[in-house]
Amino acid sequence: MTADASEPPVFRFDDRDVTVAELEALLDAMNDAPMRFPAAAVFHRSLRSEDREATSLRHTLSVTLRHHGTLIGFLRVVTDHAYFYYLCDVMVHPAWQNQGLGSRLVESAVHECRRRGYMKIFLTALPGLEAFYQRFGFRATLSPVLTLRGEDEAQYPPLPPP
What we know:
Elements: E1 10-13, H1 20-30, H2 39-42, H3 50-59, E2 61-67, E3 70-79, E4 84-92, H4 101-116, E5 120-123, H5 130-134
């Protein structure tokens, strides 16, 4: 795939037409993207499955970027639809990177979250990308981000019974 600047890509918020197959194709393309961290780890490829991806697409908002109908950009918004919005899985096909399209995805998501009213908009920036997100008003908080990563489950202590 090569970028075709003759026709601009189309952005859409809450794109319910995203299919698992086209999201998988974009994730596959991201493996070839120049990234500071391996795309497989960033996008948790080892934990994804068709069934779980389909469930996720039904329960999250998708901000998409399409060119001639082909998915070339994606941003997932996980939300309670009232107060909290979490932006994740921000990706632009490698052939379309460095054209400001990732910025447009984030701008679109932040604009819509503001329009809906929000208490907080969260995201987790990879080290080195903080300045990118600060352009949209994001800033480091006093609270550290703690995470349990499914890929590391074998290293965690067993949970006590409920």
